[in-house]
Amino acid sequence: MKITVMTTDEQFITLEVDPDEPVENVKALLEVETKVRLQQQQLLFNGKEIKNADRLSSLGIKDGDLVIMASGPSRSYHLIAKSAPSDDLRLNADGSAVNPGAFQQQIRGDSNLMAQLLQNDPELAQAILGNDLNRLQTMLKERHQQKSELKRRQDEEIALMYADPFDVEAQRKIEAAIRQKGIDENWAAALEYNPEAFARVVMLYVDMEVNGVPLKAFVDSGAQSTIISKSCAERCGLLRLLDERYKGVAHGVGQSEILGRIHVAAIKIGKSFYHCSFIVLDSPNMEFLFGLDMLRKHQCVIDLKENVLRVGGGEDTVPFLQEKDIPSRFLDVDRYLNKESGSASETSVSKVKNDKELSGGQSSGATRGRTTQTPDFEAKVAKLTELGFGRDAVLQALQLFNGNEEQAAGYLFGG
Asked: Given this structure, which CATH class describes domain 205-344?
């Protein structure tokens, strides 16, 4: 007889099977067709899961019937959950082990189960093989949450398949599911064709000398003016030239005081010297920022193909620094800024605004903000947990990537 299998991504597969065929053999055929491992498949008929040992005829499956195939990343946890027969090895309601030490030893001693875990969920397998029981408990909870969330979503999808076509609420949910499917496909395409989008971007730094003192300069075409910190200006012997008539307030992450302006000093880029003016900020989180005013003045070209900064119309060329050559305090901006100020804003470029009531001078520049929990942070958490990840893992990933939802998703799926 022939049966039709519909996958969760709405593919329809027709199989020629024997009525007395066990379900496990059907899964083996589907593994060849869909590339989804047998252990990760869940077959449903009339909304109920069918077991591997069941035979099609005994389940009432007839010629032309529809079977639904669900698959997900939590099947490895399902294998573990069934592997603990004794009371000491039972799981709590939240998915953690009642006796984590005994549980760990039991799983380690099952070579077949460990082989399946290493293949299907290497991260959980490493936690079982490691010595950190707290990490193991956390991962067991996360896998339990993933399994519960996956089951909830699958139940919703099955319910929608049998929903009344005239039910407005059901149609709204179907529309939302179709939209989410488009988003997931777009995300999968990005992983395949544009994986760089999920990686952290290292900002552009070059080696410069200011008044003979070597510095790592941040090249920022989005900053209106070139900025130097008070401590850096002092180290370069320029603080004596500070014109305090240009005092003001820089608005960005909280507020930074503009101490004034240094009108001209020599900077060395490559082998040549150039005249440069600076805004001086009372901000230790940044030493020197080469802004748009000086980039324009000295006809600079940011050449990302060759990964160099060309100065003076190409007369001098200096390479942008590799990540290993950039001081860690510049790379870990969020941690560094947190020491400076308890205020928060999304990562952005903010123009420095002069407080003209404090002085009659005119100046401008730029400061950088840091990423923290924004008003839509919980919405990001909700979206990622809907994909089957535990809340703790989602929070950790969002913190790791400064709230960037796409990078956090790439990290979670990559893990």
From this structure: mainly beta
